[in-house]
Design a protein that fits this description.
The termini are far apart. The chain is an alpha+beta fold. Helix 1 packs antiparallel against helix 2. The chain folds into two domains: about 35 residues, no CATH class; about 140 residues, 3-Layer(aba) Sandwich (Rossmann fold), CATH 3.40.50. The model has no long low-confidence stretch (mean pLDDT about 90). The protein contains nine helices and eight strands. It binds S-adenosylmethionine.
Length: about 240
């Protein structure tokens, strides 16, 4: 109810203000700190998570220094329209899981459009609308779309992150980056899998019905660009060199 009241207040008092997106980001981050989920919003915990009982605290979000421009659109199209940049970071989906459905409550909190919903998770009905779907979540179409996006992006250096559990194997990702005609560096980070994968598998009645197969995965970061430049970037990440 507090989140609802603040959300109403943002539109009422800051509807035309440049602060509106800042306030929305702050409210979203505050709500995320007290939610009663395991992260994704495909189901909710049967008992309140302890953090859900904490106070809701709105904080000033960390700002990126300098000026900037946010452009929202389909990456496969935008790469052909955006001006040249020094560095492009591509952080594509890895698999079938969509942010639109996994985080539908946040989607609604920002849109504030009271959508019709379905199922125990109360997902938005427009989750079923093809317009909310992405080629990057479709196993068969994704590799070609990613290859084309990496190749077309107009940047001196391209950084791509991906998981070893994603649709595209590392060798193919390297090949996609090589298609830019530049050298490629690969950084690999051993990481904890997302929390939903760590807690086991439970039936709707709450009984444990399956075990966790593994708890770690590898997150890759591929750098593509001038050899000296990406070499220095990799060196800085791995050894903290000042170059
Ligand atoms: C791995 S997440 C990246 C998250 C982001 N870097 C962050 O820190 O929040 C992939 C993101 O790509 C977005 N996405 C999926 N398909 C897209 C497309 N065709 N064009 C642009 N973005 C897309 C998803 O909605 C999601 O936000």
């Amino acid at each position: 109810m507090r989140i609802d009241a603040i959300r109403e207040g943002i539109d009422e008092h800051y509807g035309d203000s440049p602060l509106r997106p800042v306030l929305l980001a702050s409210l979203l981050a505050a709500a995320d700190a007290v939610d009663s989920t395991v992260g994704v919003q495909m189901a909710y915990l049967k008992k309140w998570a302890p953090r859900a009982l904490n106070d809701l605290r709105l904080r000033v979000p960390a700002f990126t220094p300098g000026t900037g421009r946010a452009v929202r659109g389909d990456a496969t199209e935008l790469v052909h329209e955006l001006p040249a940049v020094d560095l492009a970071y591509l952080d594509p989906p890895y698999n079938q899981h969509r942010y639109f459905t996994n985080y539908h409550v946040w989607e609604t909190l920002v849109r504030w459009d009271r959508p019709e919903h379905y199922g125990v998770a109360c997902k938005r009905v427009d989750s079923r609308d093809p317009a909310t779907k992405s080629v990057f979540n479709a196993k068969r179409e994704m590799p070609a779309a990613l290859a084309q996006t990496i190749k077309s992006v107009n940047a001196d250096v391209v950084v791509v992150s991906f998981s070893n559990e994603g649709y595209v194997p590392l060798a193919d990702l390297i090949e996609m980056c090589h298609a830019r005609g530049n050298p490629v560096e690969v950084l690999a980070f051993d990481s904890k899998r997302y929390v939903g994968a760590l807690i086991g598998i439970y039936s709707p009645s709450g009984d444990k019905v399956g075990n966790v197969s593994h708890t770690r995965n590898t997150e890759y970061v591929l750098l593509s660009g001038d050899a000296d430049r990406i070499g220095a970037m990799a060196e800085q990440v791995l050894h903290g060199a000042s170059s």
